[in-house]
């Protein structure tokens, strides 16, 4: 396989795994809100389970997963998922929540523990990707 074909293969593999991770992350966010876990910590993250919510999180998960193409990530595989998850989490905490969604720096308008929940949801995303890649026999 030439370099271009290998890059396209890897990109599509990580994108698909990221979509799986995005779906798992979206469902965990919804479940956390549905059972009242986020609410018990006074965090206002309780999205409705809609096709739009699932679509956005799934595609975002796939796009962010292209970070797995970077050759500088650590091993073992589960640590790689956690480290990569810090990048979209930082984007959400410092760009998306405060600027796009106007929820204050670190999303503090959603509750004091919002940064912890955001980090946990992104860790779920990263670990889901690495677990999926291991499950299908791909190199994470």
What is the element layout, followed by pairings?
Elements: H1 3-34, H2 37-40, H3 51-64, H4 77-100, H5 114-135
Helix pairs in contact: 1-3, 1-5, 4-5
Cα distance spanning the termini: 19 Å
Shape: elongated
Report the C-alpha radius of gyration, rounded.
16 Å
- Beta percentage is under 5%
Total number of distinct structural domains: 1
Q: Order of helices and strands, N to C?
A: HHHHH
Number of helices: 5
- Uncertain residue segments: none
Average pLDDT: 93
Question: How many DSSP-defined strands?
Answer: 0
| Proportion of helical residues | 55-70%
Structure description:
The protein is built from 5 helices and no strands. It is an all-alpha fold and 140 residues long. The chain has one domain (3-135). It is elongated, with a radius of gyration of 16 Å.
Characteristic terms for this protein:
single chain; 140 residues; mainly alpha
Please provide a brief summary of the model.
The protein has 140 residues and is an all-alpha fold. Helices cover 69% and strands 0% of the residues.
